[in-house]
Amino acid sequence: MLLKVNKINTFYDTSHILFDVSFEIGEGEVVCLLGRNGVGKTTTIRSVMGLTPVRNGTILFNDVEITNKKPFEIARMGIGYVPEHGGNI
Description:
Elements: E1 3-12, E2 15-25, H1 41-49, E3 54-61, E4 64-65, H2 71-77
Antiparallel strand pairs: 1-2, 1-3, 3-4
């Protein structure tokens, strides 16, 4: 398993945003995270990247736990995040 997210819970201050989110991505798979506005898509990605700390649960990348590692450590392991922004570049 390339990436395994197991029952992560993420908060912004006291607001509980992600509730026991779990998924797995295998080598060579292409995955899309879909949902309406405000359901936690960006928070999920930010949690994987270490940009928004996970309060509990685990995240494994290539069988190495990366839960709450610093974002630069996760990036050095090969995970990237390119946020979408509207407007002209």
